[in-house]
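Lab notebook page, bench 4
Experiment: in silico fold of construct C2
Operator: M.H.
Input chain length: 684 residues
Purpose: comparison with the prior construct
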Amino acid sequence: MNKLWWFTLGLLLVASQAAPSEYCSAYCFTCSGSTDADCILCPTGFNKVSGSCAIDTTAYTSVLETGSSTSTFSDQRAFNCGDFSGLPGMYSDDYVVQVASLTNVAPHYSMRARIFILWVDTWDATNLVQLIVDNTMRASATYSQANGTTDQCKRALTDPSSLLDTGDFAHNTAVAVAMVNISACLDTTKCNWGMKDFILIVKACHSYCSVCTTSLQTDCSACVSPYLLTGTTCNTTCGVGYYNSSATTCTICSTGCSACAVSASNCSACTASYYLLTGTSCVSTCPAGTYINGSLCSSCLTGCATCTNNPTPCQSCTTSYFLTASTCATSCPAGTFGNTATNTCDTCNSACTACTNTATNCTACSSGYALISSTYSCVTSCPASNYNSSGVCTTCSSSCATCTGNPSPCQSCNSGSFLSGTTCVASCPTGTFGNTATKTCDNCDPSCTTCTNTALNCSGCASGYALFSSNFTCLASCPFGYYNSSGTCATCNGSCATCTSNPSPCQSCNSGWFLTASTCATTCPLGTFANSATKTCDSCNGICTACSGTAVNCSACISSYLLFSSNYTCLNSCPAGFYNSSGTCATCNGSCATCTGSPSPCQSCNTGWFLSGITCVTTCPALKFANSLNNKCDPCDTACLACNGTSSNCSSCITAFALVPYNFTCVLNCPTGWWEKTSINSCI
């Protein structure tokens, strides 16, 4: 198939040749014919006027590069197919077509693009078409075989899906590049398509604006020369309250300025309710040191922080000046002081005739008062350690808390000293102690010769008393655990409760110790036991050589006696079920009633057991029976092989004898009427 490559110029209508009758005019969305007058429905951005579609100039304008009526559209292609030779487009595999390249678009804030994609005959794959503006996909459509016809180069179909319309999108740059991206056909012999009617329109800024957000003069962000941007409005001159900060921009003056120059804060006039300060700035309130003088802030008199006029009266004063009678002075009159916090002359306290810094910081006192120089206060009576000396509180002697003169007599003493008579001393005389509560020297208790801190806290005792150092008391007799050692209660041995000396002899013992021969021991000697009630070692019973707890609770016996450990007693002989084992009654074997050793020999047996020789058994051996009368295994009659209960109650017989079943006897010959069955040695 022939391919015709061609280029065309134009903005609104890309194709310069007449479109086939099957296609509407460039401006029409739907139509009854191919001329402008045949339009039925116009696309967005166009209005219907007398059957034709024209740009809606209230919202859009055509795209024009500055100084030109047209824009260049490059790389436009068409194919030649019979009577459709005028159809623009291309026949190819995968291709990207640049349909517009604008470099100097007039100022605008919104853009809209539209193009018809025309498909001729058939194709065998799904194909994607994208309309791209400034590298951003703005509209797309997908086409498949169902959208075409098999009658190649005889008919072209259009439907709404073949119209790519971006809708309005934000755009404000002077450069715009539009591209159409077509995906490849699988069979290039069956893939014919073309482009038609590329339209690019914009929403233009106001004629004064070079950059904007809407078409209004008040929504500009930059202006065309010679206009100046004032806020968001472009004007020929800066308005009231603005100054020309650059060749293109008006900047608002500082708050309160009605006129300024060079900078926002360099004011020459102020708005209502503002006052010009020092000829360059506007303030809503005149600062300290000035007052409102018409539309100006004028300076107060020297020393005034605030004032109502010049030179007087002052309302407040600056540092180092004090307000007195509506004027500011560097010093205050008599009876007042300069208050540095308020910068005023304030009256002294009534007790003062002169003061400084505060009302109570006195330097001289009224009649009836005395001055404390260290605190600059006037008092009716001097504090402790001071006395009134001609209207001035004078310090007592260093040891006195109160006094009537200096150096004496003292009335009370300072900490660390004690009043002895009218003198303050560091140490009280013998027989007295320093009372820290009263700071006086008080007498010791009569039992004490010397004491400290309290009357009973003795360090030496009178005759007949002993010093107990644990609580520093003098006692007529020492407490338990102590004894009188040359007038001092000395500690007994640690084991003694009472004693007459240390380490011994003890008179009684502490818990866990027992008295034996005037000493305390934790273990009593052999032949005695620890009596916990008396805390003494007491003798054992006469037949015990060792005992515990009581005199008869024996653990060893004298010779010829046996220890019965079951009740810790000493016996002449062991009871039944026990035997003498080296002086101790040991338990017989469990089957023996009496024995001479363990586990044997048994001498007699317990119930249920039978003595067989020197052993107790539950079943007697052959030729013997269990005699329950004597708990022994006794012999059966000589003819019995086995017997029960008695020696003659046979249960089987020896050879040559036969058992008579009715009297359980063994006979040589069966009685009359019976015959001997030799296999069982029995009469039947």
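Observations: Residues 1-22, 65-94, 149-161, 184-191 have pLDDT under 50 and may be disordered. The first strand starts at residue 3 and ends at 5.
Next step: discuss at group meeting.
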